[in-house]
Design brief:
Helix content: 55-70%
Shape: globular
Number of strands: 0
Distance between the termini: 40 Å
Largest sheet: none
Order of helices and strands: HHHHHHHH
Number of helices: 8
Length: 185
């Protein structure tokens, strides 16, 4: 793959150029963040097919509004908020949004020893299973906070709940996950 001269440019420069209509700068943004956005959306949606659509919708929305982003250094969190909104819109449109259509999958991190790789994969599989057992709001807040890096206020705004409710949901989800994952040490 051929490198683009902007591949190493800081986010703020890419945002400024994309805001001025530079399509190649936006392509660098897409290459830089699409993998993370897809992984996040997939966990949020529970469906890789729907998550791809949500990310595509989010990137279209980002392109349409990138000229309104005043601080390019917050690009990642801005994109994550847009993806969160698109995922939540799709979840709300589902007829039965309580049932996940596909099982959650997480790749094991790359480690040197095969037994360490197997151990990590098993732990991640257990985390996936524990996350899938959480009530929807607990799972969504946990994913938005832990994988998405969203603040309590951002989560509250996206889900239409108070930040204090977010705090409580996160505390319950963390307590449940710790209990479920207790055997992995």
């Amino acid at each position: 793959m051929t490198r683009h001269p902007l591949d190493d440019a800081p986010d703020a420069l890419l945002v400024a150029r994309a805001g001025d209509g530079d399509v190649s700068a936006f392509e660098v943004i897409v290459r830089r963040y699409s993998r993370r956005l897809r992984a996040y959306a997939s966990r949020m949606m529970g469906s890789s097919l729907e998550s791809d659509d949500a990310v595509q919708d989010a990137l279209i929305a980002a392109w349409d509004r990138i000229d309104t982003l005043e601080d390019g250094s917050v690009l990642r969190s801005w994109l994550m908020r847009i993806v969160t909104t698109k995922c939540l819109d799709r979840i709300r449109r589902r007829k039965d949004h309580l049932v996940l259509e596909e099982s959650w999958t997480v790749s094991a991190p790359s480690v040197d020893l095969p037994e360490r790789r197997a151990e990590a994969a098993a732990a991640l599989g257990d985390l996936d299973a524990a996350l899938s057992r959480l009530p929807d709001l607990q799972r969504q807040t946990w994913i938005m906070r832990e994988w998405g890096g969203a603040s309590y206020d951002e989560i509250g705004n996206a889900l239409g709940i108070a930040p204090s409710t977010v705090r409580g949901l996160l505390a319950r989800s963390r307590r449940t996950l710790m209990t479920d994952m207790e055997g992995w040490r």
